[in-house]
Each structure stands twice: as C-alpha cells, then as structure tokens.
Amino acid sequence: PGPGGQSSVPRQDPLQxxxxxxxxxxxxGGRGKTMPEFSEVFRAYGAEYESTMKRFLGNEGMYLRLLGxxxxxxxxxxxxxxxxxxxxxxAFAAAHTLKGVAGNLGLTPLWQAVSTLxxxxxxxxxxxxxxxxxxxxxxxxxxxxxxxxxxNKGE
Length: 155
Known about the structure:
About 60% of the residues lie in helices and about 5% in strands. It is built from seven helices and three strands. It has helices at about 40-45, 50-55, 60-70, 75-85, 90-105, 110-120, 130-150, and strands spanning about 10, 20, 30-35. Strands 1-2-3 form a three-stranded antiparallel beta sheet, with no helix packed on it. The longest helix has 23 residues, at about 130-150.
C-alpha cells in the first residue's frame, strides 16, 4: 500500500484514459501521477503489447519485475566471452537462452538480433562476423534497458 493505505497499483483513470499510480500525488495534489501507457511504450520500442501481456495475464507489475531480471542475467556476457574464445557450443547455449527470454518478454528487436546468432551457432558454423552480430545484440540490449526505463517512468 502507498501513502494513506492506498494501493500503489496502477489503474485506469476513467475520465482521462491515462494510467494513474494510486497513492502518488502530482504538484497540484491530484489523485495520482500520470504514467506513460504501457502499450504506447511497447509500440515505440517495436514490441507487440497485446500478445506479450497475454503471457503475463495482463499483469504489468509482474512484467516489469521479470523484465528487470533480464539485466541481472549473465547470458549476454557469457555469449560474448564464448564467441571471443571460439567456444561455439557455449555461445549457442547462451544465445539460445537469451533468445527465449527475449521472446517471452516480447522484446522483438532483441529477439531478432539474437536470432541471427542462434541459427549458425546451432550448427556450430565457423563465421567471421560473429563479433559484428554480437555488437548488434549489445546495441539491442541497451535499447531494451532504455525500454525498461521508459516503462518505469512515473513509478
């Protein structure tokens, strides 16, 4: 519960159509703080809100908690280390895990970047461009972190 025993769970403002955080106050002492619509932030990032939220039973709080765990996961670093050492088996394991997590979280741009690595790694294909492909994964990972920050604005 937030201040005054109110829930801090976001709810739809029936008059404005905006998300409000109960228990938060704005400068005018209003009922709550306007938060960016999750669906708008998803679209701006390049993800599909409806199908992703179905996997999370519409629970945006649970989604945020699980998305936050992605940035504590070590698979991205393990992927880079395995590629640098030429360990394609370990690189595949890390990339495959990262691809699954990105897919389940609806992080379409990150999923696409990791997918370009997974398929050649699956067959242990020797390639010269793994470093470039990994850089694309790192770039999309940074975009996913910014997406997470955008979703948390107003919390």
